[in-house]
Amino acid sequence: MKLLQVFRENRLFAVYTALVLLVVFVAIFGNALAPQDPYAGDMKQVFQPPSAEHLLGTDKLGRDTFSRIICGTQVSLFMTICVVVLMSVLGGVIGITSGYFGGRVELVLMRFSDMMLSFPGVVLAIAIAGILGGSAVNTVLALFVVGWAKYARLVRSLVLKLRQQDYIAAARLSGTKTHRILLRHILPNVLPIIVITGAMDIGTMMMEIAGLSFLGFGAQAPTPEWGLMLNEGRQYIQTAPALMLYPGLAIFIVVAIFNLWGDSLRDVLDPRKDG
Amino acid sequence: MNWSQENCLICNHRYDPRAMGMGIRTRLLALRARIRRVAGFFMAALLYVCPPAPAGGFFIWGEMLLERILGRLLQTLVTLVGVSFLTFCLTYLAPGDPAMMLLEASDTIVSQETIEKTRHELGIDRPFLVQYVSWVGGVVTGDMGMSYSAKKPVTEKLLEGFAGTLTLAFVSIVFMLLISLPLGVWSATHRNRWPDYLVRVFSFIGVSMPSFWIGLILLYVFGLKLGLFPIASSTVTARGIVLPAVTLAIYMSSKYMRQVRTVVLEELHQDYVVGARARWLTERRILWRHVLPNAVLPLITLLGMSIGWLLGGVAVIEMVFSWPGIGNTAVHAIMMRDYPLIEGFVLWVAIIYTVINLLVDLSYARFDPRLRKEGSR
After folding, report:
1. Is A223 in contact with A157 (CB distance < 8 Å)?
2. Nearest-CA distance from A207 to chain B in Å?
């Protein structure tokens, strides 16, 4: 098993991968793991302190904070994965085609991505998500519209270099079909970089999603989304400060796990760089 | 920094005879050179504005620079037009009719006729492109239209917010540099020893925490529990700026610290450092006189980007602390569906950001001779 060997050689990477899998597990089975229904309010039990029944207490509607945070993993992670996958797939496709074929389409696309890059994405994302109206789908859309340019640029610059290689020329001379060259020769060389960039972006995207939700332009109540929960907790900062502590802690832990994993993934896939 | 005068006979590194303490004659020569440098200050200033020409003479150089500036200006223009068009499209496609909003806000019973009349007054009954062109025409003359919600010109509204944002940006940049420069350099010079690990752990924690959460915690501890700072400041005050600026500084410096570390490490691995060590220069001197001046250049670009980012208004932080900045204005504008204000805000950020990038690029090319050489190929 090649994978097992990779894990044996990179113990840290194995540990981080296990942690990531744990987060994914919580995200998938969150609804079953949560001790209580994250949507079920109980107006007789608002702002309860932590107890055996409510591990982290309850919020303004008497909902169990612990269950909401567990279920929030699913929402946050799903949105993040959507953004990152969309960005890397579209960025990759645009980067490869424009790098390999060139031409007028490339010029327009690259001007467009230049435009996106020479502009703080968060501002545009706020504007897009805000104007289209706050919802989880619009948040994903906004971050994706803003973020694909980075991938396209990166992939294109790699493909431009690869195109000069002798084996590409050899493949072309021997009559290999273009789509086969792209899939068999270009893509495998570009993929690790896309994966590394994507993995390292997960943490950032998760925080941006939380930020948009915090502003009220992301997921809407009563979804158990961490940024939204922080926003709700913020209003009760004097009476129930714990409510804004836990969701932030959840974001911090998950983002930290993904950042560590992304860094070690880079070290595994691209061992040239040292810290 | 150009005071190395000779090449080492053994390893061919350029070195400075003064540093060797080679006796009175050399020192006198060096002194004379220094006097000449001081006297030639204005000459040097002139050379900065118009550096010596590469092969081909002044004409080529001027043309090259002009070409680059024009190219960048064109790119900036494309960005501005593109971004403004995109935003305009969005507000055009967005759900909700501004005329309805405006009339509903005034609590009167509206007839279809009134709606049509308001739509006509707002100019939103015209075709899309006509609206866009007339808006751009207004922007060029400094008129970004009227804000629906505030009933004030958008330009005025933006300038109001910009004062707060500018102050906040300036203070937090100062805090950020105070935190990240010493720590970044410290961690680079003590690579793989405990200061390095400490700094890296701190920066890792900072990178993984959402900035608004840091803000909320600081707000709770220092604002509510200790009562040292106000929890909300609707005007620009000295005490009110501390918490948002510190929050931003912590958030930014956790990234900047790493970059300082990387840049300084890169410079420490250069050959000239080996040469300097071979010449028995003290580590401190190498750091202050050789490594840091070289490390400043790459950091300028990063600094320029973060200034642009800050001036765009850090909406989340401004909202947490109710700071009267441009980001706060924008968030309220979006909630009120105040389209002219949103468009104005996005265009404003685009202008600030691209102009700062342009300035950084040009200054970078100006202060780094290597880039000039590359450009003249």
Report:
1. no
2. 6
Q: Are the C-beta atoms of residues B343 and B91 closer than 8 Å to each other?
A: yes
Query: Which residue among B216, B335, B350 places its CB closest to the CB of A248?
Result: B216
Q: CA nearest A247: which of A226, A218, A220, A271?
A: A226
Residue B228's contacts (CB-CB under 8 Å, 6 or more residues apart) are B222
Listing DSSP states for A172-188 in one string gives: HHTT--HHHIIIIIIHH
**The pTM is what?**
0.80
Which of B94, B213, B316 is the closest to A248 by Cβ? B213
- Residue B145 · residue B312 · CB < 8 Å: no
- The encoded tokens of residue B222 equal 């220092």
Read off the amino acid at residue A63: R
Tell me which residue in B208, B224, B353 faces A256 most closely, judged by beta carbons: B208
The two three-digit tokens of residue B370, written as one number: 């290597």
Greatest CA separation found in chain A? 77
Q: What is the pLDDT of residues B212-250, one digit of tens each?
A: 999 999 988 988 888 888 777 777 777 888 899 999 999
Which secondary-structure segment (H or E) carries A34?
none
Residue type present at position A251: I
Cβ neighbour number for residue B86 with a 10 Å cutoff: 20
Q: Which residues of chain B have a CB within 8 Å of the CB of A131?
A: 90-91, 94, 334, 339, 342
Partner residues linked to A64 by β-bridges: A58
Residue A257 pLDDT > 80, yes or no? yes
**Residue A22: CB atoms within 10 Å:** 11
**Which residue from B346, B345, B312, B81 is spatially nearest to A115, judged by alpha carbons?**
B81
Separation CA A237–CA B219 (nearest Å): 9
The full set of domain ranges for chain A reads 2-269
Does the model's ipTM exceed the 0.90 cut? no
Tokens of A138: 């619009």
B354 and A118: CB-CB below 8 Å?
A: yes
What is A2-269's CATH topology? MetI-like fold (1.10.3720)
Question: How far away is chain A from the Cα of B79, in angstroms, using its nearest Cα?
Answer: 5
Q: If you measure CA to CA, which chain A residue comes closest to B351?
A: A119
